[in-house]
Design goal:
Shape: globular
CATH class of the domain at 231-375 and 474-545: Alpha Beta
Strand order of the largest sheet: 2-3-1-9-8-10
CATH topology of the domain at 231-375 and 474-545: Rossmann fold
Amino acid sequence: MCGIAGYITNRNVDNEVLEKMVEALRHRGPDSKGEYHSLYYHAGMRRLSINDLITGDQPLYNKDKSVVLLYNGEIYNSPQLRKELEGKGYKFRTHSDGEVICHLYDEMGEGLFERLDGMFAVALWLEKEKRLILARDIPGEKPLYYSKLGNNEIVFASEIKSLALFPGIDLSLNYQGLWDFPTFTWIPQPDTIYKNVFSLPRSHILICGKKGIRLKYYANKFNLQYINMSDEAVIEETRRVVQESVKSRLLSDVPVGCFLSGGLDSSIVATIAAKALPSISTFTIGFEDVHDPYHGTADESKYSEEYAKKINTKHHTIRITSEDCQRDLLKFCSSADQPFSVPSGMGIMAIARAAHDAGIKVLLSGDCSDECFGGYSWYFYLDNNIPNKKMLSAIPNGGETVTFNNFGLGLKERLSVLNNYIPQKRAWAWHYYASEVEKEKLYSRDVFKNTKSSLRFFHEYKDSGDWAPEDFIKQDREFYLFNEMLQKLDRMTMAYSVEGRVPFAAPSVLAHAEKLKFNHMVRGNYLKWALRNAFKDILPREIYDRPKHGFNVPIDHWLKNGWSDLFEETFRTSSNLSKAGIITKDSRDVAYAMIHDRMRVNGPTIFSLIILNIWLGGHSWRS
């Protein structure tokens, strides 16, 4: 695990530039560093030592050192790939999992990335051809950003704050990204906060050489060859792919830990890991005793503490308050690298800090199970049509801004409104926050006059015809999973030099999920039906039957109480948002009404503006 940065350019660049770019990634790799210099190519890395602690420093090379690798990540099937390559006569210099990439390039060229089961951001320099290949893993776990300097010149880095240190980079704000931000609480990739800085899309390579710069998609070749399977076969295959994924992600020469909420997903991961390792640490968050009117009690730590005793782990409960999180907001903003306001990220960051203090460098997470196996509460209603157009007249704005988060409305009323939406708008309403109407009231139309609707992402997924229940779940898997879940875990764990691993995002698990029918995911009173039954024999009944809760932070409660000063600071005329002309003069009143709206959860929308205000003032971490 590490952070990487570099550039290809004909420009005369001071030698200290690369040093500064690499140093900005120290939190991603505090243990060592490495650099490589060619005529026009200069790159470096910071390393977090997890595998091959003695000989695993980078760069890594092929036999004649014509292929040079700097990379961030872990290749979990590297033992099998190494054995295969050694059988063909390839000689290895190190025990690093990454060295297989160099030799695989000699063996199969750009197609090598289809063979990698892992998380990675790769910079592969071909010295003879003077060509750079950047690559990102299939699910999109590891970040990699780039900016074009010319037709065949480029700068790249694991984080935007590192890339931004390159002289002359255009850091003009991306107002389309800012428009999308309160809707999703993140800026959808490949866009970033800057107009001319981009995220390399997941499952893509970027090739930069004499012929210019081009992007190329590579497929998930971990696809499973079946179409129709019996229930028993689906359950058996679910158990196999998940179990193999968890076990492979225990690859480490340092101690491993697990997130453990006491829910289904993290309990499966922790149980498999605890059986495979002689000892393991588990971690959970305990919030102050707050009863959120929308989500119930925020503190779920008692469940994890009880289950940790059953599987005999060394358990840690980290208790945090609203004051703790408020003190951490600057760190949260800096670690996110660009505007990112998913409240649960603060809990993950607190766990990463505790893991770091306990000497744990690797944490396995239960994230992404919901998108793969059908775990979100609204999935129960994806095939439930209750059309009632007359009911719309009794709902404000004719239902224009109603979402599934309108808990002040009865379930039947909410479903009635959502079922009258076109599928693309319904996809927004199931899962997300600020509507186009609300943003028009909060944001200055002079600044955002040329922006497009955030609903375009759902039209891009499927623009015509009705959506089957599987379509909504698949759209979450292809959009929400890597934009929110994987981004959140990577940024918040790496903030404290801890590697977060996600077994449910493995290429094989994603491929298996693609084959599942709706009734394999949602059946009767159960979400994640196949996953529950796959591990029914190793889980206690209370875990098997426990309803989906989610890792909720009581952000609405905090904003109306202890964080009211943050609210006022965000909307005053001297705020960074106001000085930048981003919000309207009436935005404070609009936001106040939203946060006190008893009909709907609006905390994430308002929190987005608070985070954006802090981020705009955070010059210290971007200069």
